Protein 1
Amino acid sequence: MITWATPNVPSLPGNGPTVMLHDATTGVLQPAATGPVATLYVCGITPYDSTHLGHASTYLAFDLLRRAWLDQGLTVRAASNVTDVDDPLLERADATGVDWRELAADQSALFAQDMAALSVLPPDVYVAVSECVPRLAEVVEQMLAAGAAYRVPTPEVDGPGDVYADLGVDPAFGSVSGFDEPTMLALSAQRGGDPQRAGKRHPLDPLLWRRERPGEPAWEAGVLGRGRPGWHIECAVIALDGLGLPIDVQGGGSDLLFPHHEMSCSHARVLAPGTTPARVHTHAGMVALDGQKMSKSLGNLVFVGRLREQGADPSAIRLAVHAHHYRDDWEWTQVGLDEALLRLDRWREAAARPTGPSGELLLAEVRAALSDDLDSPRALAAIDAWAGTDGDDPQAPALVTMVAEALLGVRW
Ligand code: 5CA
Ligand code: ZN
């Protein structure tokens, strides 16, 4: 996939401390990376509608992590997928009479423009499902041969049936979320699973390969029969091939913890036995509008592109998002954006002064806040305090602009 331009990330004096992140599996702070190379997999979009503030907030959260890692002096490798072959996209294409490829290409291009405008660092590995179906089919075949997957008859289609993963072969299944079975069953039904599907060994077993149905895209796939891959396997394989396992951090919004990350980790454990696929799992909270999670299916959306057309400064959009801790659920409001703009104006005025309070101290405070589970509200409060106080450090205004650009993606 084509990504977008890399924003300027000024390099700051010295290095930041080790970034600690809240791990959803253990419930405690863990070092986000342990080696000189840090790897991050962030689940990408399903491109059937423009980027809304919920998506943006999730990608901005992991952008903070990448910036803090770079500041720590690490080499960062980041990967993302694009789910351009999946039911909601195909349904939207059908409903609007647009070819699914065209819909996916248009929306992916808009997403790239929004990410570039928000100064989000582009992934190093960026793969759409439509670009790797033969590889996904190969893996599904491998899982079938190893007895980690099985066929479920599809009376409406000739030839072999659909293929499901047998979660019974993975003793560690459930360890990512720690949820009990009733919770898993409820979430599976809500979030793309098919616990009611007849013929499965266990209601939670996820789809790996779906045989072609009339009107659906399909690829030739040898013994699997023409069809398309299920959802979770794409992220397991793109992370495995693109970054190698274990990755340091698996990220996405909190709606992906179960079933998506539980399932993709289970697939990765089957494909790379003996590994823990991700050292740390961390999730961004959900952004709501009018009291409900902003979601394409509900249609209660504020689009990044629309805000930009209306003249919103992308740096103010970033500050409206970073005013909330990334793991919290929060509500998008126009008031929040207005406040972010006022904050940005105060920062810009303060940075235009000939002198200010110590820039070195401010840098240390911002670094300390971000390394503590990406505490952006604390980082913003530190810059507010700097901007609201007089000082005699002539280097400070220039350093503070670099700090905000390097660590928070704010442009001046
Ligand atoms: N393609 C899959 C992941 S493999 C997917 O979930 N796509 S998505 O387009 O539905 O969502 C893209 C990212 O935005 C996911 O990480 C998801 O958790 C996050 N997201 C979706 N809605 C919200 C929201 N309201 N608030 C915060 N993050 C959200
Ligand atoms: Zn994913």
Protein 2
Amino acid sequence: MDGCIFCEIAEKKLHFQIVHEDSDVIAFEDMNPQAPVHILILPRKHIVDLLHLSSTDEVLVGKIHLVAKKIAKEKRIERRFRIICNCGEEAGQSVGHLHFHLLGGRRLGWPPG
Ligand code: 5GP
Ligand code: ZN
């Protein structure tokens, strides 16, 4: 998708610290980390947000969560981490390419702001 920053990262036109990649999913360090571990996990293909998922994306969404599990173990944050998907501007979504935040490595307050 032209002009989408996360598509550009997925296509390696922009370079950030990649922590996982396969044919469907890519994960990289958030450039403005909100916790000691803050990774963004996303589908390579452009999907705007959770509302734009279709039934054919079922496996993809499962895969993303298995990648989150793998990274949480690699980063040794199994005992304190959270996966967040902001959907809509008022929920804090600033990039219109579906992504899941994996946050951890510190105590996380509840409820989130
Ligand atoms: P959102 O606010 O949409 O849920 O999350 C977008 C996240 O992407 C933010 O945490 C922001 O710091 C991160 N971000 C935005 N642009 C870039 C970028 O070009 N590179 C990286 N690594 N992270 C980005
Ligand atoms: Zn995109």
